[in-house]
Design a protein that fits this description.
With 272 residues, the chain is of the alpha+beta class. The protein has a 5-stranded mixed beta sheet. The radius of gyration is 20 Å and the shape is globular. It binds a DNA duplex (16 and 16 nucleotides) through loops.
Length: 272
Amino acid sequence: MPELPEVETLARELRETLVGRTITGVDVHWPRTVESPDPETFAQRLQDRRIREIRRRGKWLLVGLEGGDWLLLHLRMSGRLTLRERGAPEDPYLRLTLHLDDGRRLDFSDPRKFGRALLADSPDKALGNLGPDPLDPALTFQRLAAMLAGRRARLKPLLMDQRFLAGLGNIYADEVLWEAGLHPLRRADTLSPEEIERLYQALIAVLERAIRGGGTTLSDRRYLRLDGNPGDFASHLTVYGRAGQPCLRCGGEIFRISVNGRSAHFCNGCQK
DNA sequence: CGGGGGCTCCGGGGGC
DNA sequence: TGCCCCCGGAGCCCCC
């Protein structure tokens, strides 16, 4: 599933191909994919608009249009963006198509239908509940420490709470905690300054490493890059999907447990 | 207020 | 082979 590194990879690829292009037409194949406004208005307001910039906040992709509107995309579980030439065959799960003035089209396909697209005049207002992005320079060690103070939640669910931090899903929350040597059930308000520093450095290091690898494509191939190729980071995962295997750091066993109804992978030996 | 559990939306695919 | 049900990101409701 696309998390921060996968969306960042797509954002960088879209920036190269989409900025300066004009949207010549919009097809809504599955109306519920469009959250707001209603699908007809959505398509009308995108028609003939020039794309000014591409940004990312957490797992949200932000497409800035000349004239002030923003197209916001969230891929959720199974959303995929593919840039295709005119006339290329559609895939069976196509939900939304943006036709571009260079003859190509951006296809948003999504088997699970959880992905969402919406138009907003201000992304910050529309995404007001989102926490800071871990790679935003505004997230300093001091700010992270202040965010953790007084939080009695366990680290794994807290890192996945998009209102706390925007961008981590199940894979990278597990990977960050392994990198930091912190147990997923550890209570957030019990971390020492030294442990907070490790968490802070791990967040940045793991996410930047995954972006350099072009994101994580698992065997289900749910996430693919804009051109349909897989990302390279799956082979660098340390705990996610490695239950029963030895820890790459201490040789201890990797466990898989359920936390708040979702899986958590960690090393029993070196995560405290 | 904050934490936590449950429900909803979906359908591929794992397990029986 | 066939069928049931689990799974999950995020928003929401409800309870403690």
